[in-house]
Amino acid sequence: MHTTGAVRGMLPALVGAVLFMSGDDVCAQSIYAGVKGGISIPSLRGGNSEISEGYSSRMGPDAGIYVGDRLSDAFAVQVEALYSSQGGKKNGMQLIPDGTLPAGTVPPGVSLYANYNNETALNYLEVPVVIRYSINTRGSLGLSNLYVDAGPYVGFLLSATNRTGGVSSLYLDKSGTPLLLPPAGQPVPPMDFSATTDVSSDISKVNAGITGGIGIAKSLGPGDLVLDARGAYGLRNIQTDPKNGRNNTGNFVIALGYEVQI
Q1: What does 35-104 look like in DSSP terms, one character per residue?
Q2: How far apart are CA 92 and CA 241, in angstroms?
Q3: Hey, which residues does 124 pair with through a beta bridge?
Q4: pTM
Q5: Which tens digit of pLDDT belongs to each residue from 166-183?
Q6: Where are the alpha helices (DSSP H) in the chain?
């Protein structure tokens, strides 16, 4: 994928920018690096379309690496590269998107409903750049520091998959009025909605937003064990076609990591 290749090319430059942003004043002890991983609890906000509304949270992995420069005892700037799983799920009676049913099942322009499971998984490579403010509490509760961080991020879509499942009859509305076949007026036989569909062409390749959170660090061995909680909100609509709705994606992440001075 061209997007993934471009991101790989950017990462060395991002790391280099952090390492040399302070010019000749940077000393080795000011630079730190870490790894972290945890659980992403994403959500799809907005909608503006029955197809894109009503999603609840799903869970997925969130993990990556980061490097930072301590500009002072309190402030640091930190660049990260994270794999972030986002998206949402919607189960129960819902509108069937165009193109889901086999051609000829219903006349063009007729909207139908079914009772089935629907989950959309959006996987991103995200690059946040955050300012981190630390409160030194060494000796208090055994912690090295508490910190808050915030800043912008850019997300590059790696994959977008829609998974559906379940067996359902077809209905004319959300209240469950059955679709009847002429001339006998019999309901349409139940249909199997089990499918996995690549929907990456329906999702914008680049997202951007803001992120921020809070964390604690405890000295352990040569570095610090870090527990981090952070939220993020994308400022761009993720759909490429407005007829599919206008959603913003975001998530809440709880992660455990380890960082050392380099």
Answers
A1: EEEEEEEEEEEEESSTTTS--B---EEEEEEEEEEE-SSSEEEEEEEEEEEEEEEEEEEEEPPTTSSPTT
A2: 25
A3: 84, 157
A4: 0.82
A5: 999 999 999 999 988 888
A6: 2-20
